[in-house]
Amino acid sequence: MSWEAFIKQEKVKPYFKDLIEFLENEKLAGKEIYPESKLYFNAFNLFPLEKIKVVILGQDPYHGEGQAHGLSFSVPDGVKVPPSLVNIYKELANSIDGYAIPNSGNLTHWAEQGVLLLNSVLTVEKGNAGSHAKKGWETFTDNAIKYINDSQANIVFLLWGSYAQKKGSFIDENNHHVLKSSHPSPLSAYRGFLGCGHFKEVNEILVSLGKNKIKW
C-alpha cells in the first residue's frame, strides 16, 4: 500500500471526519491555521513508502508565521532556524566529519532521501502551541507509525524526548532500529541529546543494511 492509499483509508474513518470538521470550524471562526492545508501531509509527499529509511518524530508544528511546512523540526528557507534545530545542527557538526552547519533550516533534502519528518499533530493555531492536540491527529499519526512498523523492516526510528518515546513505545525493536535520547530543545538537549551520536549511528546502520547513507 502506498502513502496515498494509507491516507485515503484514514480519511473515511469517523475520527478523521471529526478532525476535518474541527479544522473547518476553526477556520470559520477566523483562526489562522498552520501550515496551509496543502502541506498537512508534506512529510508523506516527498518520497514513496518503499523508499523510507528513517522516521524522526516531533510533537506539533511551529506556531509562528511562516515557520510550519509539514516537516517536523524543519522551517522553510529564509526563516530563522528554531532553537531545537540549532541543537540538531550542533550534534551533526560534532558527530559527522566535515559537516558544515547550513544557514537554512529547511530539511526537505532529508525527506527526499527517505527520512519521514513526522509530527504527532499536523496542524496548529497561529501563536497557540499545542492547540490542536487531542483532536484526532494523534490517531492518524499513530496509525501511520503502526503501518510502517507492520509493513516495513529495518527502519531507524529516532525518538527524542519522553513524548516521542511514549508515542513510539509499540515499535517492534526486533524488526526495527530504535534510537532514544532527550529532546533537542534548549531545555533538555544537554541531558543526552548533544553527544548522542544518532546521525552517525543512523548512517552506520544504513550502510550495514546495504543502503545509502543520509546526506545530512
Write structural notes for this entry.
- With 216 residues, the chain is α/β, with parallel strands linked by helices.
- Helices cover 36% and strands 11% of the residues.
- It contains 8 helices and 6 strands, in the order ααβαβααββαβαβα.
- It has helices spanning 3-11, 14-28, 42-45, 83-95, 108-111, 137-151, 162-167, 198-208; strands at 33-34, 54-58, 115-119, 124-125, 156-160, 177-181.
- The strands form 2 sheets. It has a 4-stranded parallel β-sheet with strand order 3-2-5-6. A two-stranded antiparallel ribbon has the order 1-4.
- It is globular and about 50 Å long.
- The mean pLDDT is 97.
Question: Strand percentage, roughly?
Answer: 5-15%
**Radius of gyration of CA atoms, rounded to a whole number:** 17 Å
Q: Tell me about the biggest sheet?
A: 4 strands, parallel
Helix/strand/pairing category: alpha/beta
Q: Determine the N-to-C terminus distance.
A: 28 Å
How are the strands of the largest sheet arranged?
A: 3-2-5-6
Instruction: Please work out how many helical segments DSSP would assign.
Output: 8
Q: Considering DSSP H and I runs of 4 or more, what fraction of the residues is helical? A: 25-40%
